[in-house]
């Protein structure tokens, strides 16, 4: 019979062995200590996630910006008008019928199928339209409505052409393919036009006289050529154009001989001036706000006023013969002014407003393309829709 002391010793050893086996089975790592309540653990954020983070449903998407000025079709990303945070037209869309109109409107249409421009005419009394001259744009009509000149995109006869309005024989007035956008003088015999035919490809102003072996002359001021675009005559024979004198750019006014240049506006993209019949007011398009809009100034450069103010393209103003209305092109759709959507090379419509900007409304439901470069024409010879023009003839 064993002694109780030995039995107690044996039990102690067995207890120690069992405890050791249990500890080995549970592993040697200590139990992790939970973070204290309220302690934030750092979260890893990748610099460039492979998938964009889904935006909340009520987050507004960025508004697409329209294409800008001469020579560049795509604006810098994120460009927005400085003056407005949401579409804010100067006046609401007018209701009711159009005013009684007379005369004929001539305007260019870019045909994507033919890859060229055509000049269309619209009888403003009946609103009937027809294709007037093919492979042509930038029309100019004498004040008496007898002759029309235009820029030809026909590869067989590029340059500036002219003919009587009744469709008789066509004359090639200027043979340079770079010659553009003619505008008749008040005497209906001469016209001013810009051209980039020189090696530096700068747009210079020329005067077509039709006299002698050199039917046109380069306009100069202080012995230097006048670098400019989109010229237009005033009734007194002065010329307004888009240009720069040294680093000062905008609209300028000169005498027909290039004398006494006077700066009227101070923004480089002010362009396509259209002079009122009485010569007192000049309408033009400007991109000062980030979007093409129509402004007017007095002929001395004072009294600038905005006639359109929204997030669309508005441009190419032309005056009615009595000076009461202005027709222009716009990318506004039937949802204007409540909704904005602009896509590349979007459709244009003809709009009309009072000379003070009131009663803006569509002239017709006809939509058309306006921006394009005709097939076979070098990019530096065509500047798209901002070099085009409308004409309101008798």
Tell me the layout of helices and strands.
Layout: H1 4-26, E1 104-111, E2 116-123, E3 129-133, E4 136-141, E5 147-152, E6 159-164, E7 171-174, E8 183-184, E9 191-195, E10 204-208, E11 216-218, E12 220-221, E13 224-225, E14 228-233, E15 239-245, E16 248-254, E17 262-263, E18 271-275, E19 281-286, E20 293-298, E21 305-306, E22 314-319, E23 325-330, E24 348-354, E25 361-368, E26 391-393
Antiparallel strand pairs: 1-2, 1-26, 2-3, 4-5, 5-6, 6-7, 8-9, 9-10, 10-11, 12-13, 14-15, 15-16, 16-17, 18-19, 19-20, 20-21, 22-23, 23-24, 24-25
Overall description:
The chain has 394 residues and is mainly β. The protein has a single domain, classed as Neuraminidase (6 Propeller), CATH 2.120.10.30. Helices cover 6% and strands 34% of the residues. The chain contains 1 helix and 26 strands. Strands 3-2-1-26 form a 4-stranded antiparallel β-sheet, with no helix packed on it. A 4-stranded antiparallel β-sheet has the order 4-5-6-7, with no helix packed on it. Strands 8-9-10-11 form a 4-stranded antiparallel β-sheet, with no helix packed on it. The longest helix is centred in the first third of the chain and has 23 residues. The radius of gyration is 35 Å and the shape is globular. The termini are far apart.
């Amino acid at each position: 019979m064993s002694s109780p002391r030995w039995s107690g010793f044996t039990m102690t050893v067995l207890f120690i062995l069992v405890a050791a086996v249990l500890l080995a089975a549970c592993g040697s790592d200590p139990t992790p200590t939970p973070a204290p309540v309220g302690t934030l653990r750092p979260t890893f954020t990748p610099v460039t996630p492979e998938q964009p983070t889904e935006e909340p449903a009520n987050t507004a998407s960025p508004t697409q910006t329209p294409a800008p000025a001469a020579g560049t079709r795509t604006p810098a990303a994120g460009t927005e008008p400085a003056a407005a945070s949401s579409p804010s037209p100067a006046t609401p869309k007018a209701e009711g019928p159009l005013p009684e109109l007379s005369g004929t409107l001539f305007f260019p249409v870019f045909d994507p199928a033919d890859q060229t421009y055509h000049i269309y005419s619209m009888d403003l009394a009946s609103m009937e339209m027809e294709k007037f001259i093919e492979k042509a744009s930038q029309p100019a009509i004498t004040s008496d409505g007898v002759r029309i000149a235009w820029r030809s995109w026909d590869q067989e006869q590029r340059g500036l052409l002219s003919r009587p309005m009744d469709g008789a024989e066509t004359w090639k007035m200027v043979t340079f393919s770079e010659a553009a956008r003619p505008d008749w003088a008040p005497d209906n015999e001469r016209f001013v036009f810009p051209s980039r035919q020189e090696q530096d490809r700068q747009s210079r102003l020329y005067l077509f006289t039709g006299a002698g072996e050199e039917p046109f002359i380069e306009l100069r001021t202080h012995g230097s050529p006048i670098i400019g675009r989109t010229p237009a005559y005033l009734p007194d024979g002065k010329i307004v154009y888009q240009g720069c004198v040294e680093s000062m750019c905008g609209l300028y006014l000169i005498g027909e001989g290039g004398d006494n240049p006077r700066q009227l506006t101070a923004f480089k993209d002010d362009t396509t001036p259209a002079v009122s019949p009485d010569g007192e007011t000049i309408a033009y398009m400007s991109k000062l706000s980030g979007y093409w809009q129509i402004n007017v100034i007095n002929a001395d450069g004072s009294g600038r006023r905005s006639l359109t103010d929204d997030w669309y393209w508005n441009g190419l103003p032309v005056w009615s013969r009595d000076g009461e209305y202005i027709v222009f092109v716009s990318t506004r759709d039937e949802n204007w002014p409540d909704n904005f959507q602009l896509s590349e090379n979007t459709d244009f419509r003809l709009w009309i407003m009072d000379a003070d900007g009131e009663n803006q409304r569509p002239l017709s439901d006809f939509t058309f393309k306006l921006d394009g470069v005709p097939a076979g024409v070098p990019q530096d010879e065509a500047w798209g829709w901002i070099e085009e023009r409308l004409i309101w003839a008798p």
